[in-house]
Amino acid sequence: MLEEVERWLSTRSWSATDRPLHHILAAKQRSGQSVSVVLPALNEEETVGEIVAIIRHDLMQQVPLVDEIVVVDSGSTDRTSQVAAAAGATVVHRDAILPRVPAAPGKGEVLWRSLLVTTGDIVCFIDADLKEFSSDFVSGIVGPLLTDPGVDLVKGMYDRPLGGAAGQGGRVTELMARPLLNMHWPQLAGFVQPLGGEYAARRSLLEQLPFPVGYGVELGMLVDALHLVGLDALAQVDVGVRKHRHQDGQALGRMSAAIYRTAQLRLARGHLVRPALTQFERGEDGFEPRTYSVDTEERPPMVEIAEYAKRKVA
Q1: Most Cβ neighbours (<10 Å): which of 158, 180, 272, 292?
Q2: What is the C-alpha separation between 188 and 173, in angstroms, rounded?
Q3: Burial of 94: CB neighbours in 10 Å, binned 0-12, 13-18, 19+
Q4: Tens digit of pLDDT for each residue in 37-86?
Q5: What is the model's pLDDT at position 301?
Q6: CA 130 to chain centre
């Protein structure tokens, strides 16, 4: 491991217990910074309500750490929006944000648009499919941003069980993202969960970053932030165990293709010969090909969007 990464691990990797909640709250009050929590959601009625309720109870009612919780629904066909609203979140539909730009499917699209409907100086992203959720996920990753002005982005790190096996989750991380980072961006080799969906950053950084519209958003954001603000402005916090709904192998294949494409563009900004992925499913006549397009679109930094600039002036 690079000596720089070893140093970073000793100075920019923490546990959620390193910063007691009252210390974080005191730092927030001194700085006057506000905190927004964003949950991107698509058909998560089983879990989104409990996550919102826990954040509201622990970090808004018990202590005033979080200023707003926004659930951005990207087209749910279940009761995700109703459940989130009943739990106390502000619910906004993806297509209602920046309607002049037709929405693309994908998580990164939702995160990008969320910057237009939140107000926090610090924006914390939390996936809406987490089970046995703890508010430590929010306070843990927001803490360094409130207590250390030199930190701009904080990723959560955690154990990811798969079934009954500890540490066997995060298959795309281990098979795709970690090798890519170690070989091409070795400064980022110290991140335990580079693709994790729980992270927080200063708005001043997020608004300068391009957002891949799909699954490549986390890797793209990490790489771009490294180049924009440097390794010492990035950090990670251990928040325990992350349990969530797992996807099947073919879905993970499509996720991997999007992540590889995101890396490829950042390596060479080159032309994709074939932005598609063919997979196989057994049908009546044997294995049948199924070809999926790999999302090739990225949204520009939000500071380049006229509506966002007008909102900041207002």
Answers
A1: 158
A2: 13
A3: buried
A4: 999 999 999 999 999 999 999 999 999 999 999 999 999 999 999 999 99
A5: 95
A6: 13
Phi-psi group of 271: left, alpha or beta (phi > 0 → left; psi -120 to 50 → alpha; rest → beta):
beta
Report the Cα 246 to chain-centroid distance in Å: 16
Q: Is the pLDDT of residue 242 over 50?
A: yes
Closest CA to 38 of 1, 73, 72: 72
Tokens found for residue 262: 């995101």
Query: How far are the Cα atoms of 11, 41, 122, 260 from residue 190, in angstroms, in the given order?
Result: 12, 29, 23, 19
pLDDT for residue 255: 84
- Rounded to a whole number, what is the distance in angstroms from the first to the last CA of the chain? 48
Question: How many other β-carbons are positioned within 10 Å of the β-carbon of residue 11?
Answer: 10
CB 184 within 8 A of CB 194: no
The whole-angstrom separation of Cα 92 and Cα 6 is: 42
Dump the DSSP string for the chain.
Answer: --HHHHHHHHHHEEEGGGS-HHHHHHHHHHHT--EEEEEEESS-TTTHHHHHHHHHIIIIISS----EEEEEESS-SSSHHHHHHHHT-EEEEGGGSSTTSPPPSSHHHHHHHHTTS---SEEEE--TTEES--THHHHHHHHHHHH-TT--EEEEEEE--BTTBTT---HHIIIIIHHHHHHH-GGGTT-S-TT-S-EEEEHHHHTTS-EESSTTHHHHHHHHHHHHH-GGGEEEEEEEE-EEPPPPHHHHHHHHHHHHHHHHHHHH----S--EEEEEEEETTEEEEEEEEPP--EEPPGGG-HHHHHHHH-
**What confidence score (pLDDT) does residue 83 get?**
98
The one-letter amino acid at 93? H
Average pLDDT value for residue range 93-117: 96
Q: Which two tokens stand for residue 284?
A: 């009546």
Q: What's the average model confidence in pLDDT over 284-292?
A: 71
